[in-house]
Amino acid sequence: MELGVNYVDIELKVADKFISFIYGSKPEKCKLIVSAHNYESTPSCEELADLVARIQAVGADIVKIATTANDIVDVSQMFQVMVHCQSIGAISTIIRRPDGKLLGYNNDYIGAICAIEDGIGGPGSKNAAVTPLAGRLLVVVGAGGAGKAIAYGAKEKGARIVVANRTYEKAVSLAAAVGGHALRLAELETFRPEEGMILANATSLGMYPNVDGTPIPKQALSFYDVVFDAVYAPKVTRLLREAEECGVKVVSGVEMFLRQALGQFERFTNGIEAPESLMREVLAKHT
């Protein structure tokens, strides 16, 4: 705050100590974002209501909750959920409106799809009318929150979707929801129905500290034109490294991470353009 920042994001578990420490010295224009994360389970409406109340009680100007949403009907009892959130089944950003109501958005699908489009060589814009994904076959590995976001986002852009997952039933469920096809994870080794496919890893395989993990054998990567990995730590995963060795264009999960943050910034600030160059500079120092 001494640097003149307008927004500070702190975790709920340390919010009390932090706010006590800065008591009386916080600039009026500086807004506090208080965050809570829970990826282990889907909270009930009562638990969400309690969490929002706790965050508001510590003095937050902006409430930020990151969690899973296995039952979007349950979650929507508390939040007014945007259409994409209802389809994807996950919320990544919550905005408190002037009337006190909470509005939920999903920025993950925008971040991932824009990153993939740029990787292909397209516009990479959430507002782009023409997209390089139209008509392309995109293979999504993983049927969790990130997989759903990518599958729905790519489907919206006109891509044809194939979902591969370790638990085949989950792949079938997501594939049916987007009018695609399902595969068992092991089938990716020989899956090559056409040239020019795009692969999107939406699992945690390869995430630090298990950096040797990868969802697909190296020899199968040559089937694809572009490989995207939602994993952002490390920046260059084993999957991306092996894809590059096969001569395939790659897109790091850092791009999705950054682009969803750009979208969140604009949501939190009511439309102020995010300082992308600065955010890229800071991110580059820590990835």
TrEMBL record:
InterPro entries, per database record: Aldolase_TIM (IPR013785), DHquinase_I (IPR001381), NAD(P)-bd_dom_sf (IPR036291), SDH_C (IPR041121), Shikimate_DH_fam (IPR022893), Shikm_DH/Glu-tRNA_Rdtase (IPR006151)
Single GO MF annotation: shikimate 3-dehydrogenase (NADP+) activity
Transmembrane segments: none
SUPFAM superfamilies per UniProt: Aldolase (SSF51569), NAD(P)-binding Rossmann-fold domains (SSF51735)
Database matches in Pfam families: DHquinase_I, SDH_C, Shikimate_DH
GO BP, one annotated term: chorismate biosynthetic process
Domain of life where this protein originates: Eukaryota
Domain Quinate/shikimate 5-dehydrogenase/glutamyl-tRNA reductase: 133-191
Protein name: Os01g0375500 protein
Domain SDH C-terminal: 253-283
Organism: Oryza sativa subsp. japonica
